[in-house]
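Recall that a protein's primary structure is simply its ordered list of amino acids. Everything else, from secondary elements to tertiary packing, is in principle encoded there. The following example makes that idea concrete.
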Amino acid sequence: MFRKVCRLFIIPSVLAMLLMVGCSPRHETSPTSQKRPLIGFSMDTLKEERWYRDKEIFEEEVKRQNADILVSIDYEDSAKQLQQVKQMVSQGIDVLVIIPHDAVDAASAVSYAKQHGVKVISYDRLVRNAGVDLYISFDNEKVGNLQASAITQKVGNGNYVIIKGPASDYNTVVIKQGIMSVLNPYMASGNIKVVKQVEAYDWMADEAYDCILSLHNEGVKIDAVIAENDALAGGAIDALSECQMIPSVPVVGMDADLAACQRVVEGQQYMTVYKPIRTLATMAAKIAVKMAKQESIRADDQIHDGTKNVPYIKIEPIAVYKDNMVSTVIKDGFHTMEEVYMNVPKEQWPQN
């Protein structure tokens, strides 16, 4: 069985060097002028499409706020992330915004930054046991709730498969809590049985593909699939398609990746959860610059990081189906109509 996979390969060391060189340096200031804030943005990966959006929007907003920025990508390597954070601290960053590769390991990077007087914002993923100054993300429990609510309304009885992301990303734990809050009553009544749960290492789509194909080859009936992001949903759908079980087996995901939105309007994926990246990245950039200027920040929620409660700015996620694609993802400009519907005959496009 042959599976064609198209991937974008970038030499990590070269791209990392280009990112560091291409970022705006701290401007020299005269004794009477105020120095420009310098923000460090430590990212885990650019593997998924959404992270390119985060990076682009965050950089643009920092510069719009008359501040400078350094960006590093660790390519899913905790040791490299710590090294890169130390380098940014040595370059004089005022605030570190970090997307941790590993929720626990990244505490070392946070500790180092804070020891050197640098404030830390945990972006989208929570750093555990670190006491960051602020966590800004989406309501991840609601993400899981939206996924499970959608699929149980579609399939209220049968065998479910849950494909989680890696435990190193604490969001997977919270998303799972949201999923199970919906599924537990169905499972208690015997209407739904979770026949398989897998944890995909580093969000690898191939692991979702292998899981579904193995179950099919074992003769296990699959009625619905909950994937914690769209890459995993795509891997599951590839396997289901090979087994001629699409669209009869609904699959849900998260992130509103372009490929996922295309699958939704084409009827291959039942829904995705849209997390408005522009809202997150823009807000985080503005807050980072305010922190650098010692301005006060308001957060209405808190989250326990394993050691203490940290301030939490929570953004609402949105369930996206074929019927509301235009009024959500496309209306926000996250993707264009032409991109999402490129494989759909023009006469079937929704009317604006």
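Residues 170-189 form the longest helix (20 residues). The CA atoms of residues 97 and 121 lie 5 Å apart.
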